[in-house]
Every structure is written in C-alpha cells, then in structure tokens.
Amino acid sequence: MIRVENRNGEAVDVEGTYRIQITEERTQDQPQEQSQVRDQEQTARESGSSYAEEVDRLHDEQFRALPEEDCYQGDESLEELLKRMAYGERLSKQELEYLKIYANLHDYERAEAAARLQNKLYPEIVDLLKEAGIDLAGKDWELEIDALGKVTISGDLTEEERKQAQKVLEEEFADQQLSPKKQQMGSINWRIFL
C-alpha cells in the first residue's frame, strides 16, 4: 500500500494533483549501513516472532475459555482435522471449536467449502446425471461451471454423454448465475474434480 502525504506527514487528497519525488542517498560509510540493515532485519524477526507468540497466546486463552464439554481432547493435528473436514467427514462439536480457534480463516473456509461440495453438490450432480441416464461410476471426469452458468465437462465420457450432461447441468444451474455487476468484476469458476 502506498500512502500519499505532504511534508508534514498529513494525508493528501489523492483525487487532486500531487507530485511524487523519490530520492536516494548514498554514503561512503558502508559498514555502518550494513550494521543498520542487520539491526533492522533482527528487529523485524523479533517483532514477527513476538506477533506469532501473541497470536498463540490469544488462541490458548480462547481455548481455555471454552466450556469443558466443548474442549477438544484428541490428538489429531490441525492439518489432520482440516483434511477430514475437507473430505466431508462430520467433525464433533469439540473438533469444530478447536478448528475455529486455531485454524486460519482461509484454510477453515476452504475445508468447509470442500465439505459442502463433497456432501451436497457432488451427490446432487451425480443424481441429476443418473436421472438423465448418464452413469459416472468408475469414470474420471472434471466439471467447470463459470459465472454465467456455462458448463464444461471433460474426462472419460463419450461425446454424447458430455453434451447431455452439459445440457442437464446448465438447466439446473441457470438460476445460480452472478448478477451483471459481479460478472463485470470477473468470471468465477467452480472447478470440481470428481
């Protein structure tokens, strides 16, 4: 992020005109500069580790504040619990509470989305295609649904099965298209490897 300031350190209206000047100063005193760089690197490492320690302390405090019946007592790692969640396995209330505290938001939401795909969307798609006479048992295939509802299927399907599956799924997901405003922001693809 770049912040535009005047000489007094006050924010400048970036809608108006302004001038940016970048200057570089060079000195003959290289050993002192190298020492300053090492000091800055050391400070950055220390502040990074103190931040991590503070986050760990906060997580531990949140975990200790849970009611006894909600405390996870298992021995699976955070990564193992996230993997189980992503594969669609139902986790206990204690395991979920543990993940909510210790997992980062990105990994947690990713595992949660994978579980939804595995438990909800995948069975719906398989059932829809089975009803249309397309048997997917033992076949490797990939499904992509873009922001406009266009379906692309590839893999171990005949051309006729592929076209029929695309038609069935486009009809099913036609009502789930993005609004025109979101479409302008860029295409979002669901890629499902089944």
How would you describe this protein?
The protein is mostly helical and 194 residues long. Helix content is 53%, strand content 7%. The protein has 6 helices and 3 strands. The protein has helices at residues 30-65, 78-86, 93-102, 105-131, 159-173, 180-184, and strands spanning 141-145, 151-155, 190-193. A 3-stranded antiparallel beta sheet has the order 2-1-3, with helices on one face. A hairpin with a 5-residue loop joins strand 1 (141-145) and strand 2 (151-155). Helix 1 (30-65) runs antiparallel to helix 3 and helix 2 runs parallel beside helix 4. The longest helix has 36 residues, at 30-65. The protein starts with 29 loop residues before the first helix and ends with a strand. Mean pLDDT is 76; it is low at 178-194.
